[in-house]
Specification:
This protein is an alpha+beta fold and 110 residues long. It is built from three helices and six strands; from the N terminus they run αββββββαα. One of its GO terms (cellular component) is plasma membrane light-harvesting complex.
Protein backbone atom coordinates (compact mmCIF):
# COMPACT_ATOMS: atom_id res chain seq x y z
CA UNK A 1 0.00 0.00 0.00
CA UNK A 2 1.13 3.56 -0.68
CA UNK A 3 2.04 5.46 2.47
CA UNK A 4 0.94 9.00 3.33
CA UNK A 5 4.58 10.10 3.03
CA UNK A 6 4.75 8.79 -0.55
CA UNK A 7 1.48 10.51 -1.41
CA UNK A 8 2.73 13.82 -0.05
CA UNK A 9 5.52 13.68 -2.64
CA UNK A 10 3.09 12.87 -5.46
CA UNK A 11 0.99 16.04 -5.50
CA UNK A 12 -0.63 16.28 -8.96
CA UNK A 13 0.93 12.97 -10.06
CA UNK A 14 -0.64 11.19 -13.00
CA UNK A 15 -2.84 8.22 -12.14
CA UNK A 16 -2.60 5.31 -14.58
CA UNK A 17 -4.85 2.33 -15.13
CA UNK A 18 -3.75 -1.32 -15.10
CA UNK A 19 -2.45 -1.00 -18.68
CA UNK A 20 -0.49 2.20 -18.05
CA UNK A 21 -3.11 4.44 -19.70
CA UNK A 22 -3.66 7.86 -18.17
CA UNK A 23 -6.82 8.22 -16.07
CA UNK A 24 -6.13 11.71 -14.74
CA UNK A 25 -4.24 13.67 -12.09
CA UNK A 26 -4.21 12.88 -8.38
CA UNK A 27 -6.69 15.09 -6.59
CA UNK A 28 -7.04 14.38 -2.89
CA UNK A 29 -6.35 11.54 -0.48
CA UNK A 30 -9.13 10.35 1.82
CA UNK A 31 -8.74 8.35 5.00
CA UNK A 32 -10.67 5.22 5.88
CA UNK A 33 -13.49 6.13 8.28
CA UNK A 34 -12.68 3.22 10.59
CA UNK A 35 -8.88 2.99 10.57
CA UNK A 36 -7.76 6.52 9.71
CA UNK A 37 -5.31 5.10 7.14
CA UNK A 38 -5.07 6.50 3.60
CA UNK A 39 -7.67 4.45 1.73
CA UNK A 40 -8.95 6.44 -1.25
CA UNK A 41 -7.66 8.91 -3.76
CA UNK A 42 -9.60 11.10 -6.10
CA UNK A 43 -8.59 11.34 -9.71
CA UNK A 44 -9.38 14.51 -11.63
CA UNK A 45 -10.76 13.00 -14.80
CA UNK A 46 -12.70 14.24 -17.81
CA UNK A 47 -12.58 17.57 -19.52
CA UNK A 48 -10.45 19.98 -17.49
CA UNK A 49 -10.55 17.59 -14.53
CA UNK A 50 -14.23 18.33 -13.96
CA UNK A 51 -15.15 14.97 -12.45
CA UNK A 52 -13.46 13.60 -9.36
CA UNK A 53 -13.53 9.82 -9.23
CA UNK A 54 -12.65 7.77 -6.14
CA UNK A 55 -10.18 4.89 -6.48
CA UNK A 56 -8.95 2.64 -3.63
CA UNK A 57 -5.31 2.78 -2.62
CA UNK A 58 -5.28 -0.84 -1.41
CA UNK A 59 -3.27 -2.19 -4.33
CA UNK A 60 -2.01 1.00 -5.98
CA UNK A 61 1.69 1.30 -6.70
CA UNK A 62 4.06 4.21 -7.22
CA UNK A 63 6.09 3.88 -10.41
CA UNK A 64 8.37 6.58 -11.75
CA UNK A 65 6.49 9.36 -9.99
CA UNK A 66 3.10 8.09 -11.14
CA UNK A 67 0.41 6.10 -9.36
CA UNK A 68 -0.79 2.93 -11.06
CA UNK A 69 -4.04 1.30 -9.99
CA UNK A 70 -5.08 -2.29 -10.81
CA UNK A 71 -8.29 -1.29 -12.58
CA UNK A 72 -9.18 -0.51 -16.18
CA UNK A 73 -9.96 3.03 -17.28
CA UNK A 74 -13.54 1.91 -17.92
CA UNK A 75 -13.87 0.50 -14.39
CA UNK A 76 -12.68 3.77 -12.85
CA UNK A 77 -14.93 5.85 -15.10
CA UNK A 78 -17.90 3.73 -14.01
CA UNK A 79 -17.30 4.25 -10.29
CA UNK A 80 -20.21 5.52 -8.20
CA UNK A 81 -20.52 9.28 -8.02
CA UNK A 82 -19.44 10.40 -4.57
CA UNK A 83 -19.16 14.05 -3.69
CA UNK A 84 -15.53 14.91 -2.93
CA UNK A 85 -16.16 17.40 -0.14
CA UNK A 86 -13.54 16.36 2.41
CA UNK A 87 -15.45 13.44 3.93
CA UNK A 88 -16.88 10.22 2.53
CA UNK A 89 -19.95 8.96 4.35
CA UNK A 90 -19.95 5.38 5.58
CA UNK A 91 -22.66 4.53 3.04
CA UNK A 92 -20.68 6.00 0.14
CA UNK A 93 -17.54 4.29 1.38
CA UNK A 94 -19.33 0.94 1.45
CA UNK A 95 -20.67 1.54 -2.08
CA UNK A 96 -17.10 2.15 -3.25
CA UNK A 97 -15.77 -0.94 -1.47
CA UNK A 98 -18.51 -3.01 -3.09
CA UNK A 99 -17.94 -1.53 -6.56
CA UNK A 100 -14.19 -2.14 -6.48
CA UNK A 101 -14.65 -5.50 -4.71
CA UNK A 102 -12.58 -4.43 -1.73
CA UNK A 103 -13.57 -6.16 1.50
CA UNK A 104 -14.80 -4.00 4.37
CA UNK A 105 -11.65 -1.93 4.65
CA UNK A 106 -8.53 -1.04 2.73
CA UNK A 107 -7.27 -4.62 2.19
CA UNK A 108 -8.21 -6.03 -1.22
CA UNK A 109 -10.42 -9.08 -1.52
CA UNK A 110 -9.01 -12.33 -2.88
Amino acid sequence: MISQEQLNRLYDAEVLDQDGERIGALGEVYLDNRTGDPAWLTVRAGWFGGRKVFVPLATAEVRDGQIQVPYSLEKVKGAPDVVADGHVSEGDEQDLYTYYRVQDGPAPSA
